[in-house]
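Exercise 7. Given the encoded structure of a 275-residue chain, write a plausible sequence.
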């Protein structure tokens, strides 16, 4: 709905549809963010106190599934970052949260206004980006908290150094509408080095099942700044080889050369518009 006239007709129509489908026509309104970024804040809590480990950029999505993630988020001002991380720590503290968790926000790309979406009470697929920029092993800290230990970290202990980007490598063919690619894998070569981390279950002669998630590997690259992380990502993805099934590696390679990506100017709809 873009104007008052649309609201006058759209609200009753939606209410009738809800009543027909669910037996309840009650409605509520929420603001529509046309150019939204999906930004999440990593937290750790021990039930008494909590800390944040900065934020991650998760806006590059296809069919509402994250494809590329970064830490920290490009295009987020220091003021917005401070507001979001403060809110995340307050939420975790006031509910007595005990574990690693992620507080997720929508950020209006034009105004910087941010809105709470949800809290994921688990470790996230993209947690390695935070580990690379902070040097904190999130899984180890989560296990210590689960064992009843208090937080070992204060907020002053946690510093973000450099920039990290994670690429989700999936068994899908970008040239065929991301058609799933189950089958037998031959040779596998994952990038390695002091600034690259490859997390995978994949090995030569593995079988990619059609019955499970298509994620094969995560390639995470660190740089002293975002520009260096992008340059190193190009080198890392050039090394990546998986024989036997098509993967999304070619899409990631192409993405790294897009001006809107290198400038950090994107939102949750950008990737699908580009594809």
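Solution.
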């Amino acid at each position: 709905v873009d104007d008052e006239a649309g609201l006058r007709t759209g609200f009753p129509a939606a209410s009738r549809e809800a009543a027909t489908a669910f037996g309840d026509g009650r409605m509520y309104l929420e603001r529509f963010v046309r150019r939204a970024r999906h930004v999440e804040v990593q937290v750790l809590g021990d039930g008494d106190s909590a800390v944040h480990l900065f934020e991650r950029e998760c806006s590059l999505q296809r069919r509402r599934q994250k494809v590329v993630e970064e830490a920290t988020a490009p295009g987020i001002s220091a003021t917005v970052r401070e507001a979001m991380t403060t809110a995340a720590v307050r939420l975790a503290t006031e509910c007595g949260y005990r574990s690693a968790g992620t507080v997720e926000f929508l950020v209006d790309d034009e105004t910087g206004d941010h809105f709470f979406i949800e809290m994921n009470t688990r470790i996230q697929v993209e947690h390695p980006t935070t580990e690379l920029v902070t040097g904190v092993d999130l899984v180890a800290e989560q296990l210590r908290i689960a064992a009843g230990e208090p937080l070992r970290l204060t907020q002053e202990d946690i510093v973000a150094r450099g920039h990290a980007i994670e690429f989700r490598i999936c068994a899908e063919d970008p040239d065929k509408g991301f058609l799933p690619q189950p089958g037998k894998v031959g040779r596998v070569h994952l990038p390695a080095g002091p600034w690259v981390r490859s997390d995978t279950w994949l090995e030569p002669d593995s079988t990619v099942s059609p019955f499970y998630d298509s994620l094969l590997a995560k390639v995470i690259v660190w740089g002293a700044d975002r520009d260096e992380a992008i340059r190193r990502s190009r080198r890392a993805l050039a090394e990546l080889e998986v024989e036997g099934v098509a993967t999304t590696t070619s899409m990631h390679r192409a993405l790294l050369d897009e001006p809107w990506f290198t400038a950090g100017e994107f939102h949750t709809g950008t990737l699908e518009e580009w594809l």
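Remark. Residues 4-22 form the longest helix (19 residues). Students should compare their own answers with the one above.
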